[in-house]
Amino acid sequence: MVRLNLLLLLILLVCALSVVASNHRARKVFSELETGQKRMRDLDVEWGQLQLEQSTLAAHVRVAAIARDKLGMKPPAPGQIISVDAPPGK
To answer: Could you give the dihedral angle defined by the CA atoms of residues 7, 9, 14 and 17, in that order, rounded to the nearest 10 degrees?
Structure first.
């Protein structure tokens, strides 16, 4: 009877320790999940900011102003424009 009680006590301790270890792993995995989700949200915000910045930098008005002011470019005179027609059927 005493041996049976000791065996049951040992099984109880093993089960209790496995429950504690399982809870610890679950909390750790949940913490990693939250960290990953936060990183995902941060990257989404950064992606939106980069898209906004790209659209601002690529705006035609801005490109034309930089070409005119920094590069000294100007639109061609009407006599300098040559129009090339595509061959028929294309």
So the answer is: -170
